[in-house]
Hints:
A: alpha/beta; Rossmann fold; 8 helices; globular; B: 6-stranded mixed barrel; 13 helices
Amino acid sequence: xxxxxxxxxxxxxxxxSLSGADAFTCREICFxxxxxxxxxxxxxxxxxxxGITLIKGASGCGKSTLLRLMAGYLxxxxxxILTPAGVSPKDPEFQRRDxxxxxxxxxxxxxxxxxxxxALAASLAGLPVHETSERxxxxxxxxxxxxxxxxxxxxxxxxxxxxxxxxxxxxxxxxVLLLDEPTSGLDDLNTRVIIRALHExxxxxxxxxxxxxxxxxxxLAHEVLDFNRFLPLEGHLEALx
Amino acid sequence: xxxxxxxxxxxxxxxxxxxxxxPSSPLARLFVTGLLALVATVILVAFHLLERSIxxxxxxxxxxxxLVRETITTESRELTVFGDAPHRLxxxxxxxxxxxxRQLFVRGITEFQNSVxxxxxxxxxxxxxxxxxxxxxxxxxxxxxxxxxxxxxxxxNRHSTLAVSRQPQGWLRPLLAEDVLLVPQGTWPDEERLxxxxxxxxxxxxxxxxxxxxxxxxxxxxxxxxxxxxxxQVQSALPLIRELEKLKERQVQWRNLLAAILGIAxxxxxxxxxxxxxxxxxxxxxxxxxxxAPRRYLFWRHLVENSxxxxxxxxxxxxxxxxxxxxxxxxxxxxxxxxxxxxxxxxVSAEVLSILIWVNIGAVLSSIPILVGLRTPVGATLN
Lengths: 241, 383
């Protein structure tokens, strides 16, 4: 459970960043899946600026939930979330054009080839065909899965599928990229390839938020948000259980 | 490529895969809809054919015709062979045309071994038949089996006569329900002395009293004479019109009932299958929505799938029935002329169209749970 109040150390920085025009802003957000449950996120405020922010914390502490809230896939019980464009993340235009999301469990369309998976995301983002082809080739090459472009996801290994899922998010070169445990269960080689691709992606005002407890990604982040710090010891243990 | 095409193509592929993996799902929907549509079509087409046969009988009889049959036996004072007895229904002539002929208690046999009724006409009725006569004979054979103008030999008891064949037509048709031999009165006096059915056909003038009024007047007249004679048989189109109205009423009731059954059954069966499959495919739906694919695409996918299967099944059932039309409804006792499509194709009628409408309403209703299901947040489905 994330229980952040404005006087916590991390929120002092957040207060500062909340006024940033390019930031992805969360204000006093609270969330729980069911009414009877305790809050998973309670009064969280933060402004995610350009660059890579790594959210780390124990399993069950609400990292993935926060990313889903930021993507507009869940609705906060209270508080507000604003994208850099100043709209709600539930805005379909934002989801189509400006948001890339990599789920924890790969989630490639099973009946579409890797290329078709990329094309579908790119076309929804309104990219022209030639640009889709160029970008697909670029990101598939950078992620080292060029040769699997015409294969179905079921014929790929776990690492290859993860890279394909990341390529699908990067093909539209979104303003905001949210990655949920992108390297969990991957070997060092796969992780290095992903890190290289993310380095390539994060330029200018692009915002990348990674939820992970993988220590290998810490060197990549411009900012680290440690959710463990907000957990009381009992809560942390409870979350672990 | 346009995103809508890509999504549609992916969803179509997904649907095909699902159908191949679980053929029972589309087959169950096809079977249930086909069976229901088949039963509904049989009932509605049967009503349609019944209505048509009544209309044909009405047309044949005539809306403005009244037929009065009075049996004259050897004991009756009206039994005259030569010349007409006083015509008690003569006052009706003011309201329209009257024709009186006598049906003898004998039957004739043509040279083609067809049995025919035998009627005689009096000199007073001659003017009505003058157009049918041939210079070669004063006897006329009204039949639909032969072309007009053929001379046919007809035997009646020990007599034999040559008659000219004519097609029954005009307001005389109610008299000519079957093949009729018409000869001048007094041709066979012995047979006529046995008695006959005095048959009066009345054709109302457009400005005359209503048929109901005429029927009532005839009945009243004969009621007054009830003690002296047996009551006549009075025939008019009124019972047929009543029968038609009752049939139409019943047809509407059945149509509504069938529509309700069809709509509810299709929506329940399709809805249940759609909900089950939606749960299985929640992942793909949520994933597409996570890219920003509009919910309407995903809803349309279910709607199109259900409508496609429902219409395919209903159309196949209707087509199958149209192919078996004559055999099936012929077995059910409908006359051949009623079964002909030239008189109106019952499978392109409003009744059958209503089946398709209700099947589609059922398909739309069955998709409503999907609409509710698509409101589940993406984040609650995908991890």
